[in-house]
Automatic annotation (TrEMBL):
It comes from Laccaria bicolor (strain S238N-H82 / ATCC MYA-4686). This is Predicted protein. The chain crosses the membrane at residues 31-50. Keywords: Membrane, Transmembrane, Transmembrane helix. The keyword Membrane applies.
Length: 192
């Protein structure tokens, strides 16, 4: 089979080399797949937490809050609410708007490229935006809760009447309405 000892050693060395290469290639493929998956995962996380994307979400949340506040004002719920609550909502909205403008300015200053985005993330800009988003969400929940409580108290405490002098108050985004007593109309209790 082998004519010389040298051929025998070459055959052994090539067989060992092939085994090592097959093991290394399998490991390299696995390592490459793990590295590629890791890079994709890190890129997705960076994209989701970069200040520009967080700022877009903050502006969307703030716009949603302003629409809900305007709906509460238009439906008269804010007029019936406690004046301290109304003042608190106004103060919080002003503070959040100011903070949003400040964060938007910082975002524009750091939107020069990927390295500036990474630097802004590292310095905590995304964290600041997330705090403002949480403030907007908390104020939105507080407004919704107070609006629902105020509406329930208004409707359930006997302020419902069904005559021609009454006005209507929307209670939900649907077409449902509740008749509300006009100022000069006598109050009739609810019948459930």
């Amino acid at each position: 089979m082998f004519s010389t000892l040298q051929e025998y050693h070459q055959a052994i060395a090539s067989a060992i080399g092939m085994v090592i290469l097959s093991i290394i290639l399998q490991d390299l493929v696995r390592l490459g797949a793990i590295l590629l998956g890791g890079v994709i995962c890190i890129c997705n996380i960076m994209h989701a937490t970069c200040p520009q994307n967080r700022m877009k979400k903050l502006q969307h949340q703030l716009q949603s809050l302003e629409v809900k506040l305007q709906d509460a004002i238009n439906s008269g719920i804010m007029c019936r609410s406690d004046t301290n609550f109304t003042a608190q909502i106004a103060r919080n909205m002003g503070r959040i708007r100011y903070r949003t403008f400040e964060l938007h300015e910082r975002t524009l200053l750091t939107s020069g490229g990927i390295l500036q985005e990474i630097k802004a993330f590292w310095e905590g800009h995304s964290h600041d935006i997330n705090e403002c988003i949480r403030d907007v969400e908390a104020l939105e929940r507080e407004l919704e809760t107070t609006s629902e409580i105020s509406l329930c108290a208004f409707v359930c405490c006997g302020y419902v009447n069904h005559d021609a002098d009454s006005c209507t108050l929307p209670i939900a985004p649907s077409s449902s309405t509740v008749s509300v007593v006009a100022p000069n109309t006598p109050i009739l209790p609810c019948t459930s």
